[in-house]
Design goal:
The complex is a heterodimer of chains A (about 170) and B (about 950). With about 170 residues, chain A is α+β, with helices and mostly antiparallel strands. Chain A has two domains: about 80 residues, Gyrase A, domain 2 (2-Layer Sandwich), CATH 3.30.1360; about 80 residues, Heterotetrameric sarcosine oxidase (Alpha-Beta Plaits). In chain A, about 20% of the residues lie in helices and about 35% in strands. Chain A is built from four helices and eleven strands; from the N terminus they run E-E-H-E-E-E-H-E-E-H-E-E-E-H-E. Chain A has a six-stranded mixed sheet. Chain A has a five-stranded antiparallel sheet with strand order 3-4-5-2-6, with helices on one face. In chain A, a hairpin with a 2-residue loop joins strand 4 and strand 5. With about 950 residues, chain B is an alpha+beta fold. Among the domains of chain B are: about 120 residues, Ubiquitin-like (UB roll); about 160 residues, FAD/NAD(P)-binding domain (3-Layer(bba) Sandwich); about 120 residues, FAD/NAD(P)-binding domain (3-Layer(bba) Sandwich), CATH 3.50.50.60; about 70 residues, BFD-like [2Fe-2S]-binding domain (Arc Repressor Mutant, subunit A, Orthogonal Bundle); about 90 residues, Alpha-Beta Plaits, CATH 3.30.70. In chain B, strands 9, 10, 11, 12, 13, 14 and 28 form a seven-stranded mixed sheet that branches. In chain B, helix 6 packs across helix 7. Classes of the chains: A alpha+beta (about 170), B alpha+beta (about 950).
């Protein structure tokens, strides 16, 4: 018989300045712009059916909506994307200024969040957590939640109080 | 005392682990593995409650969910839990329980006087008796006398949580049929989840199947959505609400044994035969010493044999059937069998002392202290019924069985009416295999088992209890029938039959059978009442488990520089964001702090946090054109590097929001929205862009990415420069309503010269994580200039002095731009949202409520916000006060308001009324200070 899930632990750590870029543009409107951007990314854009993609340089491309993409660890991509979007209907910005990441691990994570997990392995979904809209990225046994900065303290309190989660030092 | 612990036996208890608990103030002992009910029986406690209406003594009648009498209150004070069946409460060390009924005690209850007045307390008596003069005079007394328990008065200290789970197959019930279904489903490759209310399953869990024990399915809703509650009791976590969804649901919830109807069938010592067997086998408890079995089917014989083997005296088996198949076997064991007989009445005052039986040999009394009854079995169709499934009456079973499913639901085992173990197990497999093939849900497999007997008549219908929990008797059903209640639903509501917390689990079938007998009707024609969630009592807190209270009641937001404000002594107010209201030194009131801060801004310089204002970027070749279409300010004509105050209106021309639009580049705009309107405005813009004007642009809400600190006051420029932000040397080079980008310590900042205070003002935006650094830098620079932090209260004073509106506060659902002094309706060239409405004559008609200033005659007394401007007879409202304050700069109270034809009434004295208080005020232009705006352009 399965053990009661109440005993399953959740650990988390917070990164208040994640390396993130956000790209806003309509891939279907301007094919030249789309080509320019995919050339910079060296990877196909993520889509609803493939919501997360790994870029050649190691950056992670995350689909957040039809015109809305998050880029994890963008590195040098940011200025190149800004250049590609100059004069076009495209906005590139430092999403790390507006988002805080919570990385959750431990045996209790799957029990609590797997019903939202869209697939196995690396996958992502914009979902609802603690009554908030968040972007969740699953990697094996961990989940990273991107939360609006103004709500970060609330989510941290939620994890501590509602999940009895244990906060770990930021890595 | 009749019950006792047997010297041996009890495969569910651990005799090496004694537990101490308290019940009704007495300290008692049990063993690990006991339920509260089994421990009470082992301690000889026979009276565990009192009847709802007549206050007759009641004892434990069943096990598990088949319990209707032994409702107890657990815990004390804030931890009090009412209405828990003692049969479902696992015993634990230190458990405190009490019976909620009976005064002065459960054993001796003066309320039993009602039993003598039974003739007056017939069905619906309170509907008829307590009408005059007012039902509500009597209601509290009746409720107190009849209540099942006491609701805790203190906040619940326990914690609850909610979880969700998806499965291919959800099996409800861990009996043989349920386990078989789970095993078969898993073998077919399905992800299987099994829930079982008991602490243990009936057998080994099939490998690969996940099971939740102590988890009770409560409700079965559309789309195979099932709720269940898991009892935890570890630490502060008490219960977990499960929200389960499965492609297929297998119901294997078993069946409830039916009590029998005879006089005094409610006495302590009348118990279901299966319960007697369970208490002996699982808990090593004998519920009595001398047992009489009253039955209509074979299962009771097994119970009788078990009782005899445990050392109890089995006085007789009274069987309704003329030729019971197991009679000879019983007689061979020395147990008298009275075939074709029935129990007429139980005898005893506070518990069973004997039974009167009648049959071919005539009536006789048999001494006993326990009457074990088995009136047949009723499949547990509650969840099936909740799912929308139809039931049908099966005359062979004497009860209702599942018929046509409304969802992918499959019923097996006893719940389907199958009483043979092998058949039940086979049905579990078969149900699943049918589901795996994608077969449409079908009617259950054929029923097995002997036919149910007719109900035995009682010798006094007022003492024959159909529903033990709500004290509904055969006489009540007779009365309802005489009064021509036809529908079982109406009878239920009239007599309260089946309306207790057990939802009629033991009484439903007997009630229908009795009604049918009374009418000479077929039970199939009557049907059953509809079962509704929850199947079992559940704490309301568990249902609200994912809706926390306290600090987590709803998401709150912190400003990026929250810690800095805390260090400055801010008092916060919750506007979604926790925003500084004021910064009082010790002992200073809010009003005094606000006035002090406002004066400092007017005379010197102040700093406030504007980070929560909405910031929406629009970029693209057609961004300007799009903004022209959705706003009144023609943003496409704003030069790069400049900003403009702007209004947004809806299709009716009604004000939606206001704010400044800055042009960052030819194709790039920044729209500032009010804090409270930011999300709505963003959604509204996307709506118009996607659905109406899909022009070549993109939009993005960057509110979270930027922190904004505002430095306002005559010395603002000095402070900003001292902080290291490079500003053009001449004011004219960076005039009011300008925007520029700069760097500060290597960080990109965006500076807007805009003002909501009427003073020289700079809004400095920086990446949100740098907010604390920027605040420190500005604060340090501001010390030489006497800078103070100011909050929303001071800002309110400053904006009212200037007549700056707050949309939603100084406007209502009909305010159009002209009402606040924004030109003539619809005069702007080109098309834009709301223009057609603003050109309509109604936008120019007289009587429109227009923004005005109000100066109270009593200079020191601010007008109440919301107070009405009244006039004429009988004093109809001409408008109302929208914002009000005491202005420390003007040393008088001032207010803004909406007043009919207000612009034509400047100078007029008006009467103002609020909650019985009258005021007089002069109508003035809504600009109390610096009407020319000179202070903005220094």
């Amino acid at each position: 018989m399965s053990e009661p899930v109440a005993t399953e632990a959740v650990h988390f750590h917070v990164d208040s300045m994640p390396a993130l870029a956000r790209l806003t543009f309509d891939p279907d409107r301007d094919s030249a712009l789309t080509r320019a951007i995919t050339a910079v990314l060296e990877a196909p854009l993520p889509a609803p059916t493939v919501p997360v993609a790994t870029q050649a340089g190691g950056a992670l491309l995350i689909w957040q909506g039809p015109h809305d993409f998050l880029i994890e660890t963008p590195g040098a991509l940011l200025p190149a994307l800004e250049q590609a979007g100059a004069g076009k209907s495209a906005l590139v910005g430092d999403a790390g200024a507006g988002l805080v990441s919570f990385t959750l691990s431990g045996s209790g994570v799957a029990a609590r969040l797997d019903h939202d997990r869209p697939g196995s392995g690396l996958c992502s979904r914009v979902t609802r957590f603690a009554a908030l809209r968040v972007t969740a990225v699953w990697r094996d046994e961990t989940v990273r939640l991107y939360v609006d900065r103004s709500h970060a303290a609330y989510v941290r309190q939620w994890l501590l109080d509602r999940w009895d989660a244990v906060e770990m030092p930021a890595s | 005392m009749s019950g006792f612990r047997l010297p041996r036996g009890g495969d569910g208890i651990d005799r090496s682990q004694p537990l101490t608990f308290r019940y009704n103030g007495r300290t008692l002992q049990g063993f690990a593995g006991d339920t509260l009910a089994s421990a009470l029986l082992a301690n000889g406690v026979s009276i565990v409650g009192r009847g709802f209406k007549y206050h007759r003594p009641r004892g434990v009648i069943g096990t598990g969910f088949a319990e209707t009498n032994a409702l107890v209150q657990l815990g004390e004070g804030a931890a009090l839990t009412p209405n828990m069946p003692a049969t479902l409460v696992p015993l634990r060390e230190g458990l405190v329980a009490s019976s909620p009924t009976g005064w002065p005690s459960t054993r001796f209850d003066l309320g039993r006087l009602n039993d003598r007045l039974a003739a007056l307390l017939s069905a619906g008596f309170y509907y008829k008796t307590f009408i005059w003069p007012n039902w509500h005079w009597f209601e509290p007394f009746i409720r107190r006398a009849a209540g099942f328990g006491t609701a805790p008065a203190l906040p619940d200290p326990d914690r609850y949580e909610a979880r969700e789970r998806h499965a291919d197959v959800l099996v409800i019930g861990g009996g043989p049929a349920g386990l078989a279904a789970a095993e078969a489903a898993h073998a077919a490759g399905a992800k299987v989840l099994l829930v079982e209310a008991d602490t243990r399953l009936s057998g080994p869990l099939p490998p690969g199947v996940e099971a939740l024990t102590r988890t009770t399915a409560l409700g079965y809703y559309d789309a195979n959505f099932v709720t269940a509650v898991e009892e935890i009791d570890t630490g502060a976590l008490r219960q977990r609400l499960w929200k389960l969804r499965a492609a297929q649901v297998v119901i294997a919830t078993g069946a409830f044994e039916r009590p029998m109807l005879f006089a005094n069938n409610d006495l302590p010592g009348v118990m279901l035969a299966s319960a007697v067997q369970t208490y002996i086998a699982r808990y090593g408890v004998a519920p009595g010493k001398a047992v009489l079995f009253a039955t209509a089917e074979d299962a009771a014989y097994a119970a009788a044999f078990a009782a005899q083997e445990a050392g109890l005296a089995v006085r007789a088996i009274v069987d309704l059937r003329p030729a019971p198949p197991l009679a000879e076997q019983a007689r061979a064991r020395g147990i008298p069998v009275h075939a074709g007989s029935h129990v007429c009445a139980a005898r005893g005052w506070s518990r069973v002392r004997g039974a009167v039986i009648d049959g071919p040999d005539g009536a006789q009394r048999i001494g006993c202290d326990l009457i074990a009854v088995s009136g047949g079995w009723s499949p547990a169709v509650q969840l099936f019924s909740q799912s929308g499934g139809r039931t049908r009456h099966d005359p062979a079973l004497g009860g209702f069985v599942p018929d046509k499913a409304a969802q992918p639901t499959h019923v097996c085992g006893l719940a389907a009416g199958l009483r043979d173990l092998d058949e039940a197990v086979a049905s579990g497999r078969a149900r699943w295999l049918a589901a795996a093939r994608g077969d449409a849900p079908t009617a259950p497999l054929p029923l097995a088992g002997p036919p149910a007997p007719p109900l035995p008549p009682g010798d006094n219908p007022k003492r024959v209890f159909v529903d033990l929990q709500t004290d509904v008797t055969l006489a009540d059903l007779e009365q309802a029938t005489r009064e021509n209640y036809r529908s079982v639903e109406h009878v239920k509501r009239y007599t309260v039959w089946g309306m207790g917390v057990d939802q009629g689990r033991l009484s439903s079938t007997n009630g229908v059978a009795a009604l049918a007998q009374l009418r000479g009707d077929d039970p199939a024609a009557l049907g059953t009442t509809k079962y509704r969630p929850p199947f079992a009592p559940v704490a309301i807190a568990a249902l609200a488990a994912d809706r926390p209270n306290g600090a987590l009641f709803r998401p709150w937001q912190l400003l990026p520089a929250h810690d800095w404000h805390v260090a400055q002594g801010a008092v916060f107010e919750d506007f979604g964001h926790l925003r500084p209201s004021h910064y009082p030194p010790a002992g200073e009131s809010m009003g005094a702090a606000a006035r002090r801060e406002a004066l400092a801004v007017r005379g010197n310089v102040g700093i406030m946090d504007s980070s929560s204002f909405g910031k929406i970027e629009l970029k693209g070749p057609e961004a300007g054109r799009f903004l022209d279409l959705i706003s009144l300010g023609r943003p496409s004509t704003i030069p790069v590097g400049r900003a403009r105050y702007n209004l947004l209106c809806d299709e009716l021309g009604v004000l939606l929001d206001d704010g400044v639009i800055a042009r960052l580049a030819d194709d790039h705009f920044l729209l500032n929205a009010s804090s409270g309107h930011a999300a709505r405005v963003r959604g509204w813009i996307e709506d118009w862009h996607q659905c109406q004007w899909p022009l070549d642009l993109v939009t993005r809400d960057v509110t979270e990415e930027w922190a904004v600190l505002t430095v306002a006051g005559p010395k603002a420029r000095d402070v900003v420069r001292a902080a290291g932000c490079a500003l053009p040397p001449a004011s004219a080079d960076f005039p009011h309503l300008s925007v520029a980008e700069a760097t500060l310590d290597g960080h990109r900042v965006r500076i807007q010269r805009v003002s909501f205070t009427g003073e020289l003002s700079y809004e400095i935006a920086i990446a949100a994580p740098q907010a604390g650094m920027l605040a420190d830098r500005l604060w340090e620079a501001g010390q030489a200039f006497g800078m103070v932090p100011f909050g929303l209260e001071a800002l309110d004073i400053l904006r009212i002095e200037k007549g700056f509106i707050h949309v939603g506060t100084d406007t209502d659902g009909a305010t159009i731009p002209a009402d606040i002094g924004w030109g003539k309706p619809g005069q702007r060239e080109g098309d834009y949202l709301g223009k057609r409405s603003l050109l309509h004559p109604s936008a120019s008609k007289t009587g429109r409520r227009q923004l005005v200033g109000l100066e109270p005659l009593e200079r020191q007394e601010p007008l109440p916000v919301g107070a009405h401007v009244v006039g004429g007879s009988p004093h109809p409202s001409q408008g109302f006060v929208t914002s009000s304050c005491f202005s420390p700069t003007l040393d008088r109270a001032i207010a803004l308001g909406l007043l009919a034809d207000g612009r034509q009434r400047h100078g007029e004295m008006v009467d103002i009324w609020s909650e019985g208080r009258a005021f007089r005020a002069r109508v003035v232009a809504p600009r109390f200070l610096d009407p020319e705006g000179a202070r903005l352009h220094v």
